[in-house]
Amino acid sequence: MSREHTDSPEINKNVHPPFIALFYLVAALIMQKFIPIPFETSVIIKTAGLGLALIGLLLGLSAFMEFRKVQTTLDPHGSVRTLVTDGIYRFTRNPIYLGFFLMVIGFPLNYGSLWGLVAAPFFAATVSRLVIEKEEAYLEKKFQGQYTNYSLRVRRWL
User: Fold this and answer.
1) What distance in Å separates the CA atoms of residue 141 and residue 131, rounded to the nearest whole number?
2) Which residues neighbour 153 within 8 Å (Cβ) at sequence distance 6 or greater?
3) Residue-wise pLDDT tens digits, 71-109
């Protein structure tokens, strides 16, 4: 029985990066409720958390605008038409996932919890394994040398 080849990354259809981020964000807030990490919460810390979350949101919006410019899909399960390397993609290959990462840290910090700092590396590892590695393999196969050159110039996260 052969599997039909499609022009898309081989990401499990049940894996959705926003839900992965939401899972770790909610887990961080729940952990704070049941196993609080004691630390002095100040207005500066809470503001920094909100700032990180807003930067994360702006990264995602910036990526969305770049995808719209070249009329390609944001769906990690979909077929891309163009390799996006302009705008925010000049600085990071994964601005949306970096944005989620900052939100996983920022929102809990804004609520007085350090658990986002604990959850963020687990989020990064999960999204790398379940999504980014598969996206990169797909982009390498589809765009070959163009993607290789891009990945040598621009880091995966920052």
Assistant:
1) 16
2) none
3) 999 999 999 999 999 999 999 999 999 999 999 999 999
Nearest to 100 by CA among 43, 58, 129: 58
In contact, 28 and 118? CB cutoff 8 Å? yes
Q: Quick count: other Cβ atoms within 10 Å of Cβ 125?
A: 10
Q: Which pTM value belongs to this model? A: 0.94
Residues 6+ apart with CB under 8 A from 29: 107, 108, 111, 113, 115
Tokens of 151: 């990945």
Q: Does pLDDT of 6 surpass 90?
A: no
Q: Which residue has the tokens 């081989």?
A: 10
CA–CA dist 75, 66 (Å, integer): 14
Neighbours of 141 (CB within 10 A): 11
Contact 141, 26 (CB under 8 A): no
Per-residue pLDDT of 27-42, as tens digits, reads 999 999 999 998 888 9
Alpha-carbon distance of 77 to 62, in angstroms, equals: 20
